[in-house]
């Protein structure tokens, strides 16, 4: 048994080394692998377009969720042509007053707010078919003309699968609501179904943007500076904390809060009432702690805000160290942008607590969250690992051309140099 355990541990260590510096034939993920020569710009612009069309849905959703659209059945449909005169707007507004959306902000809506809501609601008539056509038509054209190579065709199949899965899951969510009673008002959508829906949308957004970066940015095999590579390795380690831990949890708790009005559950944050932490009486004693984590509005909202603050604090500390490294202009600019966006997100969240859950704030909060997501994707793409053969070649050339600098780098980064040379 002890021998098997040692063998298992040895295999894990071996796999970790191979994963870090693979000795197997290396395939670079650059534009030449995915599309024919001269077609990367067209394909990249298509993916940028689909990603930002999805971004438009996210911004619209952030606004509409806070006035009961997307949460409960829309009793006011906003049907008919857009009013053209003041009298027609007044007539529509009077019709609107009989519906629950009229007081969804916690107070009666004004005529100007009604006009704003009307136009945002009608935007779906443009965004929905526009997003579908923007996805299907260029992709079909590129495939027909043979612009895409095999890996890109596989990507298109998965990318389109996300669209179909999101649509089918959204349809299921709309038509299967827990607690539905015939003759009674239709209840809100299931919280966890909504979280899955938002996660699918986020995956579609990130997957397309990542491939666009593959098409627009150069291969990591063009690395020419060991100091830059080591600085990017430091960025990669920092992102493991910022992205893979904090941002994943912030997104999950954010998806669970969206559309539930849970932002109103803690209006005294960072305190929970008179306490600094959620108390036992804030939890549902009839359910398990895990169920409270996934269902209790106070606990979810407290976790979401606290994790956001911790992520921002960790990013600020990382920013201080990374600004002193040889990260390069784009790396430093990207990480600075991330830190500024996170500070802005905290400010928006604070405004939502102090000034109320207004749709404008939730819209900006959702939009800024996905700008943070896009910035993280860019930084993750920036610090991709190059072929170890390339690094050994760069090290050999540096040792030959500038032995003094080579010794300085070897002394400053002994472990990293040993990994490259071995």
TrEMBL record:
One of its GO terms (cellular component) is mitochondrial inner membrane. It comes from the Eukaryota. It catalyses: Fe(II)-heme o + 2 A + H2O = Fe(II)-heme a + 2 AH2. Keywords: Heme biosynthesis, Iron, Membrane, Metal-binding, Oxidoreductase, Transmembrane, Transmembrane helix. Its main location: membrane. It is a multi-pass membrane protein. It is found in: Membrane. The keyword Repeat does not apply. Its cofactor is heme b. GO terms for molecular function: heme A synthase activity; metal ion binding; oxidoreductase activity, acting on NAD(P)H, heme protein as acceptor. Pathway: Porphyrin-containing compound metabolism; heme A biosynthesis; heme A from heme O: step 1/1. Coiled coil: none annotated. InterPro entries: COX15/CtaA_fam, HemeA_Synthase_type2. One of its GO terms (biological process) is heme A biosynthetic process. The chain crosses the membrane at residues 43-63, 124-144, 156-173, 195-216, 237-258, 302-321, 333-350, 362-383. PANTHER family: CYTOCHROME C OXIDASE ASSEMBLY PROTEIN COX15, CYTOCHROME C OXIDASE ASSEMBLY PROTEIN COX15 HOMOLOG. This is Uncharacterized protein.
């Amino acid at each position: 048994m002890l021998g098997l355990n040692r063998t298992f541990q040895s295999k894990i260590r071996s796999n970790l080394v191979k994963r870090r510096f693979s000795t197997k034939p290396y395939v670079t993920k650059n534009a030449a692998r995915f599309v024919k020569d001269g077609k990367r710009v067209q394909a990249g612009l298509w993916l940028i377009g689909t990603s930002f069309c999805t971004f438009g849905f996210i911004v619209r959703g952030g606004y509409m969720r806070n006035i009961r659209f997307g949460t409960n059945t829309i009793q006011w449909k906003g049907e008919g042509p857009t009013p053209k005169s003041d009298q027609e707007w007044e007539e529509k507004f009077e019709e609107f007053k009989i519906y629950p959306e009229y007081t969804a902000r916690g107070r009666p809506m004004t005529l100007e707010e009604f006009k704003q809501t009307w136009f945002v609601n009608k935007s779906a008539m443009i965004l929905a078919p526009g997003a579908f056509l923007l996805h299907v038509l260029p992709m079909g054209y590129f495939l027909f003309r043979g612009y895409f190579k095999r890996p890109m065709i596989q990507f298109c199949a998965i990318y389109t699968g996300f669209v179909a899965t999101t649509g089918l899951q959204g349809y299921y969510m709309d038509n299967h609501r827990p607690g539905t009673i015939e003759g009674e008002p239709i209840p809100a959508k299931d919280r966890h179904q909504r979280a899955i829906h938002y996660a699918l949308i986020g995956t579609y957004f990130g997957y397309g943007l990542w491939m666009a970066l593959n098409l627009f940015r150069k291969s990591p095999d063009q690395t020419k500076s060991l100091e830059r590579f080591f600085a990017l390795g430091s960025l990669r380690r920092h992102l493991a904390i910022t992205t893979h831990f904090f941002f994943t949890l912030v997104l999950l708790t954010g998806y669970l809060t969206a559309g539930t009005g849970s932002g109103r559950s803690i209006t005294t944050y960072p305190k929970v009432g008179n306490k600094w932490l959620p108390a036992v009486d804030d939890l549902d004693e009839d359910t398990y702690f895990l169920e409270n984590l996934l269902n209790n509005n106070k606990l979810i909202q407290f976790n979401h805000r606290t994790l956001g603050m911790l992520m921002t604090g960790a990013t600020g500390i990382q920013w201080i160290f990374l600004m002193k490294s040889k990260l390069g202009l784009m790396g430093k600019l990207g990480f600075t942008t991330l830190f500024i966006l996170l500070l802005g997100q905290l400010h928006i969240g604070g405004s939502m607590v102090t000034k109320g859950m207004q749709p404008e704030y939730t819209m900006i909060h959702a939009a800024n969250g996905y700008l943070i997501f896009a910035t993280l994707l860019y930084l993750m793409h920036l610090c991709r690992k190059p072929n170890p053969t390339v690094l050994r070649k760069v090290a050999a050339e540096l040792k030959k051309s500038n032995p003094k600098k080579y010794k300085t780098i070897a002394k400053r980064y002994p472990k990293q140099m040993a990994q490259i040379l071995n």
